[in-house]
Amino acid sequence: MKASWWWRFGLAVGFIGLACYELVPSAIYMSLDGEALKKVQASKKAFEEMLPEWAPRTKITPGLDLQGGVQLVLGVDLQKAIADKAERMTDRLRFDLNDKRIAFESVKRDESGDGDRIAVVFKDKGSREKFDDELLANYRYELTLTTRGDNELRFRISPEFLNSVRKDAVDQAVKTIRNRIDKLGVAEPSIGRRGTDGILVQLPGYGNPDEAKRIIGKTAQLEFSMVVDETRWMDSVTLPAGITLQKASYGSPPADDWHLLGEDKDAILAAVKGHVPETQVVRFAEVPSDGKTLYRTYIVNKRADLTGDYITDARVAQGSPEKPQPYVALDFNPPGATLFEELTGKNVGKRMAIVLEEKVDSAPVIQQKIGGGHCSITLGGMKSAEEILKDAKELTLVLKAGALPAPVTIREERSVGASLGEDAIAKGKWAVGIGVLLVFLFMLFYYRLAGFFSDLALVVNVVFLLAILAMFEATLTLPGLAGLALTVGIAVDANVLINERIREELLLGKTPRAAVEAGYAKAFTAIFDSNVCHILSGAILWQYGSGPVQNFAVTLIIGITTSLYTALVITRLFFDWMVSDADRQTLSI
Hints:
With 589 residues, the protein is of the alpha+beta class. Helix content is 51%, strand content 22%.
C-alpha cells in the first residue's frame, strides 16, 4: 500500500473523529427525557452540567416546529424612528446656529407627511447666507435642501441617510430583543430580520406568549427631564368639560405646581395645543381615583436632560424596614454619572421627571447634588406589594437589555404545542430514515461492493453535515430535515456518476486500477458542475427566502459541500484499497 494512501486514510479518520466529537452534545440532547428537556429549555447551564468536561458546548437545536413554543412576527415603527431622527436633527441645527451666532427665528420639524422635513427661518437674508457659508456643508449627507428663500431654508432627510436610519432601527431592535430574550431565560431562541421592517422571533420550548409579548414590545425609553413650573399660561387655556386646572405646591420654600387633570389625554392635548413652547412638551402621569384612571400633566423639556443610554445596571432593591416597598436601583457609566451629578447640582430644589415610555413615573424634588453614579426609581401608586415587585422586575429587565429605537407591534403570533412537535419529529425521522434506507438498498443491490463503499461514504457525509450544524449551533427545522433528505439523494448521485464511469472503462478492457483512475478523472467535471449549480441555487434560496426556506438552504449547501469530499475522497480510499493488488482482474461493481 502506498504511503500516500495511508496519509489520506489518516486524515479522513481524523476528520471523522472530529465530527463525532462535535456531535456528542447533540446526541446527549436528543436522548433527554421530558423532565430533563424542560430543564434544558429553561437554562443553558442545565444542559452544560449534563455534558462531560471534555465535550464541546455546541449542539444542534430542534426548531420551533419540532419541539413546540412561541413564534412572533414583529413590526418596527420606522416612521417613529425617522421622526425621532428628524427631531434630533432640529436640536442639532439649533445648537449649531447658536454656536455660530447665526440669528434665526425658528427651527421646526414639519410633522405632516413622513415627518422627515425640517424648516429653518432666519432673522434676515444675511443670516441665511452665513449659514450657507459656514454650516450647510456639514449637513450634506444627512439633509437634502428642497426650498431656498431669502430668509428660509427647507430640508428633508436625504434618501441615503433615510435608508441608514431604517436599517439601523431594525438592526438595533433585533439586538435589543435578543438581549431581552436572553434575560427571559429562553435557552434556544431564534431572532432575525424579516423583510425591510420585520423581525421573526422563535422561542422553542417557551410556553408563555403573553409574557414574551409584554417584555419584547416595551420600548423602555427612559428619560430624566427637568419639570418646567413656569406654567401660569394654563390660566388662559379654554378647558373642555371633565378637565380641571389645579394648583399644588412642593418644596421649601413652597413652589407653585400648576397642572391639568382629566380622564381624556387627547382632550387635554387638544386644549393646550398652541400654548406649549416649542422647546417643551406635555407628559402625563396616571392618577388612580375612585376606580378610574385620571391623567395629570407635567410640562418638561422636550429634549431630555439625561437618557437611559448611560445606564450600566438596573436591579430590584428592597426599601428600609420602615418603608419596605421595592424600588429599582440604577447605576450610570462614568459620563452618565458626571452628567447626573451636574444636572442635580444645578437644579437643587426643582423637580426632575423620570419618564418611562413617555409616561411620568415620578417627579421627585432634588434635595441635593447626587454623585457616585447611583439613583433609584420608586414605583407604586396604588398597587399592591406583589404588583410593585413584578413591575420592578420587568423594568430592570428592559433597562438592562437596552431601549428599543422605535416601538414594535405584534403582527403575527403562533403557538406550537409540544405534542405537535413530537409528532413532527417522529414523522421527520421516518421520512429521512425510509429515504436513506431505499438509497442504501439500491446502491448495494445495483453496484454490489462499490455500492457498499458509496453507502459508507453517505454515512460519513451525514455525520459531517450534522457536525458542522452542531459546530455553528444551527437550528434544525422540518425544512432542514427535508434538506438533509435531499442531500442524501444529491450525494449518492456523484457516486452513481463515478461508478458508471468505472463500469465503462472496465468494458473498454482496462484493468481495475486503470478503470478507477480514469473513472474518477472523467466524472470529476460533471460532479463539480452539478454541485456548484446546486450550491448557487441554495445560496439564492438563502438570500431571498424567509426563515424555513433559509434553514432548508443552509442544510442543503453544507450537505452538498461535504458530499464533494466524501464522494471524491472517501470512496476513492475504498477503491484504491480494493485495487491495491496489481494482479486483480475483476471489480465488484
